[in-house]
Design brief:
This protein is of the alpha+beta class and 224 residues long. The protein has one domain. The chain is 35% helix and 14% strand. The chain has a six-stranded antiparallel beta sheet with strand order 1-6-2-3-4-5.
Length: 224
């Protein structure tokens, strides 16, 4: 996996234009972020759907990621991406996107605003990554090849329970999340991060699963 680099070996300062950060937390959850160089100062910034369910644009800390993946994209696309990411991240930091199960292909406008509707919820850390790349006509995965999986329905149900425990008064959001539990497709973090490491893009589901297993072996082992 020549496009995958551990932070301990190659720090954020070696990121060329755009990369995808991958993190495994102490609870064995996986998290994705977009790492990029700002258009003018070329500082490294991190744009992601946070653990606290809102988007955030921030400077990355050493512990923010365990590794980063450099997708095989044309430099011209990379230049387009960093401008779009910075614009979207700046707007999202002022008006955060929520965490939800929306179809990411319908989420972002060309100006970086969220395409909110009556039924909108938000995105996961994985679908935020996919949405940004998709809106810039850069496709990491073959979306139609992803299946509906029973374990993902269970995962979405658990996310909803956690949301209700802290947002009991947000009835519209709760209703919309409930309606999406059985219909949404989940793109798991390691499947998206693994796909970004492929020399040939976009990646079909079967290959993404294999790449997810490979990238998972490079992450820190969680001690019990």
């Amino acid at each position: 996996m020549n496009r995958v680099h551990k932070i301990a070996d190659r720090g954020f300062n070696e990121i060329p234009l755009v990369a995808i950060g991958v993190k495994r937390d102490r609870m064995d959850n996986h998290h994705l972020s977009i790492l990029y160089r700002t258009p003018v100062e070329f500082d490294i910034m991190m744009f992601h759907q946070c653990w606290d369910l809102d988007t955030r644009l921030q400077s990355p800390e050493p512990e923010s990621c365990d590794l980063w993946v450099h997708p095989n994209i044309d430099p011209d696309i990379g230049e387009l991406l960093i401008g779009y990411i910075h614009s979207t991240g700046t707007k999202a930091s002022q008006r955060p996107f929520h965490y939800g199960f929306d179809d990411f292909r319908k989420c972002l406008k060309l100006d970086g605003e969220y395409n909110s509707t009556e039924d909108s919820t938000g995105m996961t850390c994985s679908t935020l990554v996919l949405a940004v790349f998709y809106t810039c006509n850069c496709h990491l995965v073959i979306y139609e090849s992803w299946p509906q999986r029973q374990e993902d329905i269970i995962w979405r149900t658990n996310v909803l329970r956690a949301y209700i425990s802290t947002h009991r008064d947000e009835m519209r959001m709760i209703r919309c999340l409930q309606e999406q539990i059985d219909t949404s497709i989940r793109f798991r973090p390691l499947e998206v991060g693994g796909s970004a490491s492929s020399e040939i893009l976009p990646v079909a589901f079967g290959d993404a699963v294999k790449l997810a297993e490979e990238i998972g072996t490079l992450l820190p082992v969680i001690s019990v």
